[in-house]
Recover the amino acids of this structure.
């Protein structure tokens, strides 16, 4: 009989209990005991829920108070010296100091860097290592959580980040080779494995997601060495877990490693089942990741059952484990909380709990249980029926997509011509100044939005309040002398949700929270049907704002790739097709803005880079359709209409050609945090169009001095032309307050004026 298991569960709780407990603790409103109690309650509730769903073996140590990579670093004592004094005072304070900085009791520590966990929206804390780094086992979290599960009568498998992925996900402060630290790290892992075996663990799961990446010889050698050493540890049997992609050219290497079991992702990479079965060493357990841990749709029995049967025929039921493709961290917890959804739509969804239930049914069906087989037949019929539900297919959009010609991605003239036309029409000064869109979301605004949502504040009153805010923002920008104005986006809660709510094809959950980092959660909207724009979405706000000023008002849209990337996307269409549908809806919006007299339109694509596939070989095709979608959105306008885009990251070197191919007239990017390092990309590649490398780091409450911004601009001018440079902050200002924003923007304008004066340009 095949075993049902999973490799990790959402930590935050259905009602974000962990978030509340953490934030209360950080505010000083509750002590550590209260926090740890909440954490334990959540762990135990989730285990119980899994057991009730029919799971045979649960993971443990998948829980984390903040992040599992940070946990690993702390577990092996990879704590940078500057945090040690805080640790010495209090373990938990030290841990949170690494996660989020610490400014108390004479300490003033920055947080460690944070970055995206592979291609997910989860962010992990990047361990900071150095040459000569020492490691030692300095905690008992995995053992303690194993014993905790055992006390509850559960069969539990401790989960750890594997040593090679741990090193590859870390950074060294001195630029030394991370993998050179392997031999120093392995004894600590060995000791832990020994302790887990002594505590009674039969299996341990070592996550090595880096095995689905392009690896060089050094990394491959590290894998061989690491697992040869760990095999000697006398620890539990090792389940080597890979996910987020295919093993591909690392399959032979993986098969060579002396481990007891292998977990593979058959959702992202179903085609690897054949080669994996072909080459699986005898005796090895195969854990098949067949239920999507990254999306929220019920699985298709028609596709899955044959695959499972094939696997069972090859490895035998006892050596076959059934699991989600990856940790369930990336999906919401429980669909039963979504009482507001249309029942027919809801039937096609599965959150973490439902996914575990599905696995049980598959395992029972494999064992030939008639009820389980019947349930799967019913599930398939339901899914087949979904295709016929109203809204899944919109004939109009489908026809438009079929008839798309390459022409649709083209502006009427090349940039050089547009530039002249725009200069004549907009009459901007050299080195024009602008902002990225949002202005501070004051408490008053947030309260009004909440009151409006709950029906306590009427439409008219809410509208009046928003209009007053727009007017205030416009007057302010005029007063300080910005050149291209924005309306401030006070009507928006979230840059994806705001548009999703106005488009057909989207639905929204009530408690569909997914952890983004630490206590931060997002609630991605769900794209379930064809995307149709019912009516203009932003034109009224932009026109109102433009009516208040004679300066150009920038219209503000979220781009198609970002709309896609930050949603749960239907899986009955290729992602690129869904993206093209969004692009068409936004293209109509761009057209309506232009017709309404908005001459500058910004299409934000902050998520373009994060959509990059994990393997380099897959980049070109992604970039091709992502760029195409942007161009569909922007391509319909006149030469005189200036298209801007905005991206908030600083790694451009490897995608600069694609960014240029978007052919926006102006791009604003993040640079101030990296002190313009990203401009290296522009040394190698001469970016042809307008560009505003952010001079004000809005992620920090610090207000930069004019001289600092001037400094950054001078640096920028070493690689960019004067006549292509724009002056703007890094990103939208919505998370800042007015007291910070005012002096910063005033300095920014002053800095632009000074630079113009220096170069003897008109001010
Ligand atoms: N226009 C958006 C804003 O200013 C852009 C946000 C973003 O880049 N993430 O808030
Ligand atoms: Zn941004």
């Amino acid at each position: 009989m095949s075993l049902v298991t999973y490799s990790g569960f959402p930590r935050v709780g259905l009602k974000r209990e962990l978030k509340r407990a953490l934030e209360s603790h950080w505010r000083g409103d509750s002590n550590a005991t209260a926090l740890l109690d909440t954490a334990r309650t959540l762990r135990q509730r989730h285990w119980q829920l899994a057991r009730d769903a029919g799971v045979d073996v649960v993971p443990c140590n998948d829980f984390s108070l903040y992040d599992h990579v940070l946990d690993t670093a702390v577990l092996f004592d990879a704590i940078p010296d500057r945090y040690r004094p805080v640790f010495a005072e209090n373990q938990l304070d030290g841990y949170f100091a690494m996660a989020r900085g610490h400014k108390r009791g004479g300490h003033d520590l920055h947080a460690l860097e944070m970055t995206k966990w592979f291609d997910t929206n989860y962010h992990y804390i990047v361990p900071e290592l150095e040459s000569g780094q020492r490691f030692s086992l300095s905690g008992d979290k995995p053992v303690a959580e194993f014993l905790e599960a055992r006390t509850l009568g559960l069969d539990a498998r401790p989960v750890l980040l594997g040593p090679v992925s741990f090193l590859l996900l870390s950074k060294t402060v001195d630029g030394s080779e991370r993998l050179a630290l392997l031999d120093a790290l392995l004894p600590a892992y060995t000791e832990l494995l020994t302790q887990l075996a002594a505590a009674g663990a039969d299996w341990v799961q070592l996550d090595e997601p880096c095995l689905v990446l392009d690896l060089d010889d050094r990394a491959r050698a590290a894998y061989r060495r690491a697992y040869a050493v760990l095999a000697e540890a006398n620890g539990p049997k090792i389940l080597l877990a890979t996910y987020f992609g295919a093993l591909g050219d690392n399959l032979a290497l993986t098969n060579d490693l002396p481990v007891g079991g292998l977990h593979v992702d058959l959702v992202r990479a179903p085609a690897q089942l054949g080669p994996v079965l072909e080459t699986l060493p005898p005796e090895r357990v195969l854990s098949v990741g067949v239920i999507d841990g990254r999306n929220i749709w019920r699985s298709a029995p028609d596709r899955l059952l044959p695959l499972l049967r094939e696997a069972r025929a090859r490895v035998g039921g006892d050596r076959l484990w059934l699991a989600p493709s990856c940790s369930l961290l990336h999906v919401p917890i429980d669909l039963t909380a979504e009482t507001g959804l249309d029942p027919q739509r809801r039937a096609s969804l599965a959150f973490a709990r439902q996914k575990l239930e599905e696995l049980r049914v598959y395992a029972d069906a494999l064992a030939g249980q008639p009820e389980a087989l019947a349930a799967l037949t019913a599930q398939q019929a339901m899914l087949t029926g979904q295709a016929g539900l109203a809204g899944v297919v919109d004939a109009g959009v489908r026809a438009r997509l079929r008839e798309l010609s390459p022409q649709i991605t083209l502006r009427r003239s090349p940039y050089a011509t547009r530039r002249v036309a725009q200069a004549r029409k907009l009459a901007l000064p050299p080195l024009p100044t602008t902002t990225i869109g949002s202005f501070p979301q004051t408490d008053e605004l947030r309260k009004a939005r909440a009151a409006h949502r709950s029906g306590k504040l009427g439409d008219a009153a809410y509208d009046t309040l928003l209009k007053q805010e727009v007017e205030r923002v416009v007057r302010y920008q005029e007063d300080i002398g910005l050149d291209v104005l924005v309306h401030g986006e006070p009507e928006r809660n979230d840059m994806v949700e705001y548009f999703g709510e106005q488009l057909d094809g989207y639905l929204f959950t009530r408690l569909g929270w997914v952890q983004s980092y630490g206590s931060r959660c997002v609630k991605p909207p769900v794209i379930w049907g064809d995307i149709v724009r019912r009516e203009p979405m932003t034109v009224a706000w932009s026109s109102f704002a433009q009516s208040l000023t004679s300066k150009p008002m920038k219209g503000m849209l979220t781009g198609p790739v970002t709309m896609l990337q930050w949603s749960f996307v239907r899986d009955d269409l290729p992602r690129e097709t869904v993206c093209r549908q969004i692009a068409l809806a936004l293209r109509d919006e761009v057209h309506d803005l232009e017709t309404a007299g908005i001459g500058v339109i910004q299409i934000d694509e902050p998520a373009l880079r994060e959509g990059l596939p994990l393997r380099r070989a897959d980049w070109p095709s992604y970039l091709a359709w992502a760029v195409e979608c942007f161009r569909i959105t922007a391509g319909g306008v006149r030469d005189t209409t200036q298209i801007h885009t905005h991206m908030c990251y600083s790694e451009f070197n490897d995608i600069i050609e694609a960014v240029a191919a978007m052919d926006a007239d102006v791009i604003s990017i993040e640079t101030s945090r990296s002190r313009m390092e990203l401009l290296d990309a522009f040394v190698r590649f001469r970016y042809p169009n307008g560009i505003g490398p952010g001079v004000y780091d809005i992620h920090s409450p610090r207000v930069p001095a004019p001289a600092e911004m001037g400094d950054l601009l001078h640096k920028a001018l070493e690689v960019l032309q004067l006549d292509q440079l724009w002056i703007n902050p890094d990103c939208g200002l919505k998370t800042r307050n007015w007291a910070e924003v005012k002096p910063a923007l005033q300095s920014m304008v002053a800095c632009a004026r000074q630079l113009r004066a220096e170069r003897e340009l008109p001010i």
Remarks:
- The mean pLDDT is 96.
- The CA atoms of residues 170 and 666 lie 35 Å apart.
